[in-house]
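Sanity check

After download, print the first record. It should look like this:
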Amino acid sequence: MPTNCPFSGRNLQKATPGPHDPVVATSSPDPDLVARIVAGTGLSAGEAARVVEDVVAFHAEPVEDYVRRRHAHLKTYGARNPEIFARIAEELADRVVAAPRLTERQLRRMIYG
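Expected structure tokens:
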């Protein structure tokens, strides 16, 4: 079902997941990691599980989405594109980003050429 674009009034089709979109985990977070966070922070198990889920979701953001989001954020505060691009490149070098979803054929090509 189309939705309205808030910027131009155009109708947009609902996005369907693409080949490079992260897979959203439907299972609960690693119980050992949750237990470690509970022991180290004093959070309840439920709170610790939500923290783990939030961190995983943050790091599952595809590179393209991260770049677009950061560009818009920095542009809002008056930064110019050359400065923005240099900053985003630095940030990406130190950031854990989601790997693209790869097909078996793509994995095979990485290994065997």
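If your output differs, re-run the checksum step. Summary of this record's structure: The beta strands are 3-4, 11-12.
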